[in-house]
Design brief:
Helix content is 15%, strand content 29%. It is an alpha+beta fold. Strand 28, helix 7 and strand 29 form a beta-alpha-beta unit.
Length: 630
């Protein structure tokens, strides 16, 4: 930590002495005393790679952001749309060889080489956070970084009393052998990391492939020229701190490592790289028009055949509802084109949080590639200060949800996600803000299926630096990049109705205005929120916002005649382990004030009964307790 310890910032020494406190916190970390055996070798001229301190370097050899997708072998797989069950998908989750060191100069620099012996290394589950597995120090911190504030540097020396003095920048070195199926020969082969905190380098078969920063959006690499049929060796070097750390100062447990799925998958040489399923309802909200914009890229070394694309819409019984086609061009190597298909749909069932009716869009290319997406029909509008879906005003009754469970840290399982959704529904909640980052891609699919209105927030928070990055030119690209990643990844989900530019970053200067312009150029069908833009004429976003006002504050904002936008309250009361007051007063105001779209409580730390996800752990589920019928 770069600042004096507070009640909400724990050092390793405090944690070791307070095991009972850990249990009450619902963290349940087992602190293993023995770390991986380090084999030290210094990089010539410096002891850490310069990439980790370059805020303008957003990645090396990463694929462009795109919608969450997967090629399927046949129609049955495509209709199921279970990405990890595809015949062209191979999960790399499991036990990986692992070495942890507290500072970069102690890392095994040559570990990626094929002749480097890792047989004595311990194993770690992937996905997981290494702190949960007993390596390093888990931190909880609200406001402030856990390293010396010295942007753009992350290796600066803090006061000796702080953990970061000795654990200057922990490095996790991962090794894993995997097989490439022989039937994938001649296809493109990609690897996707859904979440790595905070930055990492990747090597395959001893050759460096690339680098990524941004812990909570998918990082994807084309491995085709690096792999061979049969056994291959993957090496990943993860840094706890990087230039991305300055935009990841979220109020939460700070945990690190490869904490989401790692997936190997393949496609034809000419591949449907991205697609956006857009839809609109007519003035009576009955009939619809569907428009699919698909990007097809020739990754190969030879020109492709003439491209065609077919889109077929299926209902939830597998019945064909509508279809369309598009014809493109022959693609020369490395070239990409966009094909657009548009067709009408008569009176489809509509998607809302109460009626989550889903259809499946299946796309088939002239290469025989099949991709698909579940999606729903709904129209979002703002009429004056009223937010409507399908012509009906809605009220968002919400939860700020962190991806955190006591037994797994941030490596949330699908079963745990479903438990979260069921508890949220039981609390009469219909809304989640993905505070304060992009969630696991499976979360959005589950919200589509179960019916949750989502405010999808980008992985941007620099709370500890105040207004430092509002106008900082070297951070503009990263702020835009993280917002673009958020929109590109999750643009096909009907559950997402609002994009959020991030959380608690200064007052929202020109860098955030540029980010808003960028995402609106991608998707103009949804609205944008950013609380730090505030309320009134100087707010360029589509919604007014203010955190932590009183009931009277919000009533006065709603009554102002100079305002023209709905008021969305992303956080308004906060609990830390215990219950709250005045909730019935807020509830009555929201229910009786059309200008207020709704909102939800501020973030609540995991409670005493975390293992069952009870009301103690989700004190944000206040709607459940707001009125007791007589």
């Amino acid at each position: 930590q770069s600042e004096p310890l507070s009640d909400y910032c724990f050092t390793q020494k405090k944690m070791v002495k307070s095991k009972l406190l850990l249990v009450l916190l619902g963290v349940g970390f087992l602190m293993k005393p023995t770390l991986g055996t380090a084999q030290t070798s210094l990089v010539s001229g410096r002891d850490y790679p310069p990439e980790i301190e370059n805020p303008q370097l957003l990645g090396i050899n990463k694929e462009p952001y795109h919608a969450t997708l997967m090629p399927y072998a046949n129609l049955a797989e495509a209709l199921s749309a279970k990405r990890h069950a595809s015949s062209f998908c191979e999960s790399l989750n499991g036990k990986w060889k692992f070495n942890w060191v507290p500072s970069p100069e102690k890392r095994p620099v040559d570990f990626y080489k094929l002749d480097y012996d890792v047989s004595a290394w311990r194993e770690i589950p992937v996905p997981s956070n290494w702190e949960v597995q007993g390596y390093g120090t888990p931190f909880y911190r609200n406001l402030g970084y856990t390293i010396q504030k010295d942007f753009p540097h992350v290796m600066s020396e803090p006061d000796p009393q702080y953990t970061a003095f000795k654990e200057r920048n922990p490095v996790g070195s991962y090794r894993h052998d995997f097989d490439v199926p022989t039937e994938w020969t001649g296809r493109r082969i990609f690897i996707t990391f859904d979440g790595v905190d905070s930055a990492f380098f990747i090597w395959v078969n001893g050759v460096r492939v690339g680098f990524s920063v941004n812990s909570r959006n998918a990082a994807e690499f084309d491995l085709t020229k690096y792999v061979k049929p049969g056994k291959n060796t993957l090496a990943v070097e993860v840094y706890q701190y990087s230039s991305g750390t300055w935009l990841e100062d979220q109020d939460m447990w700070r945990l690190h490592g490869i904490f989401r799925n790692v997936t190997l998958w393949s496609s034809p040489q000419t591949h449907i790289r991205d697609f956006f399923v857009k839809q609109d309802l007519d003035k009576s909200y009955k009939d619809a028009t569907v428009e699919i914009a698909a990007k097809i890229k020739n990754y190969g070394s030879k020109s492709s055949k003439k491209q065609t694309l077919t889109a077929i819409l299926y209902d939830n019984t597998g019945k064909e509802i509508a279809k369309g086609n598009a014809v493109g061009n022959t693609l020369s190597p490395k070239k990409e084109e966009q094909l657009t298909i548009k067709f009408p749909v008569s009176d489809p069932a509509k998607w809302t949080a109460e009626t989550p009716n889903l259809y499946t869009m299946v796309l088939t290319s002239s290469e025989g590639e099949i991709v698909s997406s579940k999606f729903g029909f709904r129209k979002i509008e703002i009429n004056g200060r009223i937010f409507k879906v399908n012509g009906v005003p809605i009220k968002l009754k919400g939860v700020n949800r962190h991806e955190h469970w006591s037994d797994v840290g941030h490596a949330i399982t699908e079963e745990q996600m479903i438990k979260d959704i069921k508890l949220i529904k039981q609390g009469n909640c219909n809304h989640v803000r993905t505070c304060h980052y992009s969630d696991d891609p499976r979360w959005y699919e589950l919200c589509d299926e179960y019916g949750i209105w989502l405010v999808a927030e980008a992985n941007v928070e620099d709370h500890g630096y105040g207004t430092r990055f509002d106008e900082e030119p070297t951070m503009k690209g990263a702020i835009i990049d993280r917002n673009v990643a958020n929109v590109e990844n999750f643009k096909n989900h009907p559950s997402v109705i609002i994009w959020s530019l991030g959380n608690e970053c200064g007052i929202g200067g020109s860098n955030f205005r540029a980010a808003m312009d960028s995402i609106k150029s991608i998707d103009h069908s949804r609205f944008v929120h950013y609380e730090r833009f505030g309320v009134g004429k100087n707010n360029p976003a589509d919604l007014d916002g203010r955190m932590y006002g009183t009931v009277d504050d919000y009533a006065k904002i709603a009554q102002r005649k100079d305002l023209t936008k709905p008021l969305y309250i992303c956080e308004f009361v906060h609990a830390m382990f215990n219950s709250l007051g005045s909730l019935a007063d807020y509830s009555e105001l929201f229910d009786n004030t059309p200008e207020i779209l709704g909102g939800h409580l501020g973030i609540s730390r995991p409670g005493i009964m975390e293992q069952t996800r009870s009301k103690a752990s989700y004190s944000c589920l206040w709607w459940r307790f707001r009125r007791i019928p007589k």
